Fold this protein.
Amino acid sequence: MESLKSKTYRSDFTTVFNGDNSGDTQPRQTPGVFYSKALPTRVKNPTLLAWSDDLAKELEIEKPSVQTDIDILGGNLVTSSMFPYSARYGGHQFGNWAGQLGDGRAITLGEWEVAGSTWEMQLKGAGPTAYSRRADGRAVLRSSVREYLMSEAMFHLGVPTTRALSLVTTGDEVMRDMFYNGNPQYEPGAIVMRVAPSFLRFGNFEILTSLGEIENLKKLTDWTIDRYYPHLTGEDKVILWLKEVVERTATMVVEWLRVGFVHGVMNTDNMSILGLTIDYGPYSFLDDYDRNFTPNTTDLPGRRYTFGNQASIAYWNLGCLANALAPLVTETSKLVEVIEGFEDIFWMKYYSMMAKKLGLDRLREDDVVLVDNFENMLAGIKPDMAIFYQLLSNLPLDWDTADEVLQHFKDSFYTDLSGSENQKLFDLIKLYTERIRANSFGREESQELMKRSNPRFILRNYLLHQAIEELERGENTLFVKLQEALKNPYSNNFDDFLKKRPDWASEKAGCSMLSCSS
Ligand code: AMP
Ligand code: MG
């Protein structure tokens, strides 16, 4: 175990790549460099609100016991081995090329090395950088709580994700127009220390190609492959690498679909090159199973980032990455081939995930149709997703009447079902029951499989909203409880949270939909 203060940090990224080392945080274009040095801006009173013991243990980081450690987490102390910087990247936002974006409020302090791996230690909300554009480089408590809790929740669900080590309140106030309606208000500021092997995004590559910085593109690509995909070598390594990014991205999206997660802002600057869920903003778990749901108010006109669109968008985003890599490849048709392979890879992973979710021993030929019909039925009757799958795994297989079946699922419904909806549900449950009976293993084993695939606890937006309201009043009861519950999402330890979203929360801002204001 080592303390944050005494650790010798690595800074391979800034050693290998050239940056703007002036430390100037005046917003500007920074062509030709990979990053700009940015010192965190001092805050008034950094106070540790939360600490992820699990992550700290994994990384062998001592829990802060003195103010100097907390000062690091709040950006008030930079130790001598750290080299704080913000990365330069671009991105396609809502389908359009947006040019240079970069870490506008994220500052990497250094890399934490442990057991042969390195972890980028990044403060989010630590003040302006060269990439802050017109914004302040800060983050408010509500969005920081959301990022902190959700990163850890996703990790414990088994979904590839960046992590969060700490949550610090700054003692400073930050002005935000939360509803984008011309009523800005002061809110408490906060900083999350996030951690990942790398925060590189598709956009780090895109920006280089867009400005014709092909030597830089080659350098970043070679480095990324050497460091994070070292098993890939040889002439075709860029193609092989893209194929692996396609695989990882497909896995990530399938995992989102398994747990009912909607990212909400799948811009290419929010797509991790390691296939991790990154940049938690206006995300949501599904309450009712609605493929057309987007939690992001900015996305409402186009509904680009809905739950059901996530695979198509991942494919589109991977296409942007492939375009960015084209200058490095002689036969670009090979890039096209890899990108076109996304569909098959995705569907294979998807059906295999759904088979487990439904408790099937394996994916038999007819099961694809069963899965599709099942998903269509859910999209039609829109039950609470998490509750429905829990009830499905407890369904007594010796049911006698249709009524018995409907009664069994009734606690998952948000509205009364029509006659034809009842019929649809019943017909599918009949087919499903037969299929479960045909498993090569017993019901118990099937239920075990379902238990591992279907979360019983999900971090619903309304729960987060309540926890944040409490924290803003200085009380942390719900926050602490959620922090515990998210560690065992497949257990029944926290069944008091196994409830549908209450009516009051369905329309309330922050409980169902969120703006990007953070
Ligand atoms: P996001 O939608 O959170 O992925 O952010 C898109 C871009 O806006 C990124 O370049 C962010 O760094 C930047 N950004 C978002 N919020 C702020 C902020 N408060 N200050 C500076 N830059 C920001
Ligand atoms: Mg982002």
